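User: what does the whole thing look like in 3D?
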Amino acid sequence: MIEAIKEIIKNYINSIKPSRLVFGKIESIAPLTVRVNEKLIIPAEMVVWPPALTEYDIGKKVLMIQQEGGQQYYILEVRG
Amino acid sequence: MIELLVENKADGKIYEISEIVTDISFSDRLNNGCSKLDFSYLYDGVLFTNGSAVRFKYNNANIFYGYIFSSEREQNNAVSVVAYDQLRYLKAKDTFVVKDLRVDELIQRIANYFKLRVGKLDNTGYKLPTSIKDNQTFLDMIYDSISTTLIGTGRKYAFYDNFGSLALTDIMNMRLPLVIGDESLAYGYKYGQSIDENTYNLIKISKDNETTGKRDVYIAQDSSSFSKWGILQYFEKADKNANPEQIKSKVNALLKLMNSETKTLSIEALGDTRIRAGSGILVNISDLGINQYVIVNSCKHTFKNNIHTMSLELVL
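Assistant: Here's the predicted 3D structure for the full assembly of 396 residues, as structure tokens:
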């Protein structure tokens, strides 16, 4: 019973996708895409980013905050 | 006439067990997981290993093609087996970015990945909005996309396995020329109506306006239904990329979909092999004053002692 409840809560949290910090890597600039892992590449329309990004930032690490629901990411900082 | 074949993974042989099967049932739910075949037989030296393919026909009609996922043997030599169709494999979770795809294209992609057999997938003509499906089951990705398509186009699609091939079909094309009611086939029914779930007469969608910094609210309502049921409010936040026109059409579409009672009807009837979840049938029950096409939400066909019966859950 406890196990079942734990499982349900785990699935629930997974399904609502609460806000969290996420690391990524800039994959391309025009259009902007950010790679989070081998499967997940976030397209430009789902990222809000600082205006100063250029071609030189490709490959750089970024720290993002994920909006609840996992459909929007905000780049907080670009690391070297 | 029952025809049940099993291709045993253990020895690669095909067994016909039509004669030794004691009972069979086929269950199917509309856009809610794989269909399932339960059957029991008397053990006579052969046990089928999990993963063995099962094919079931009744009076030559194709009913089920799938794979054994579990079996149990009792001391009296009764063996009961559970098999699922290939949708079972889509319970796996993964991460996927839906971009520039229709539902049928999404299904085709996923099917290629899992090497599943694909039959007829209707072209929905509707490109899904970009979305990130992170750590979701493939089935949920597909069902979510079907819901989005329903809101976007007003057309509902059923995703199912059709005797071993994946199918996506506009529900309107799953209507059968079949009447079920107190005068034909049915021998029992139960009818319920509810506003407890999925009934809303005030639809509200908000969107944070990045230009003004304020929150725009879009509303669609039916005040005449307030007096009947009170105010039943539905609220959600709009997608970041949705424009005002899209949100306006969404609130109106949601109101149209949800501003009605949920009416459910369950029927016990003599079996008809054409019926599966998603089928449309004409229901005629004079006692309830019902005479209309309805969609089968779930069904269970039972084959026992050479009698085929079915229980249907319908949504009016």
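In plain terms: The helical segments of chain B are 103-114, 138-153, 223-229, 244-258. Residues 138-153 of chain B form the longest helix (16 residues).
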